[in-house]
Design a protein that fits this description.
The protein has 106 residues and is mainly alpha-helical. The protein contains four helices and no strands.
């Protein structure tokens, strides 16, 4: 796998990752906690992407691994800020998938 392939695959995963991250996050969490959760999930998704695209031996190639991790992180943050947040999809997913407090109608 080439560096360009790694970056392309990472960007594709990162573009959709905010939608999956919104399932985990909760509206009541602070901005700092949401940022940490998003970054950790992006790094985990990057590791899974590396393993899925090149197998576990792919981790021997530091440049490819780093390029994929960076692409997932950058694409996830960029698409969240530029696409998913402005059209209000991610916040809606957060609200819908968050458990309701006791006593609140569903």
């Amino acid at each position: 796998m080439s560096t360009l392939d790694s970056i392309t695959t990472g960007a594709q995963v990162g573009a959709l990752l905010p939608l999956l991250t919104a399932i985990v996050q909760r509206p009541a969490w602070s901005t700092e906690v949401k940022k940490v959760v998003a970054a950790v999930l992006a790094l985990l998704a990057g590791l899974v992407t590396v393993a899925a695209s090149g197998g576990w031996e792919q981790f021997q190639h530091g440049t490819l691994t780093f390029a994929t991790l960076a692409a997932v992180l950058a694409a996830s943050q960029a698409t969240y800020d530029l696409l998913w947040k402005p059209i209000n999809i991610a916040p809606v997913i957060e609200s819908v998938t968050s458990p309701k407090p006791a006593g609140q109608p569903e």
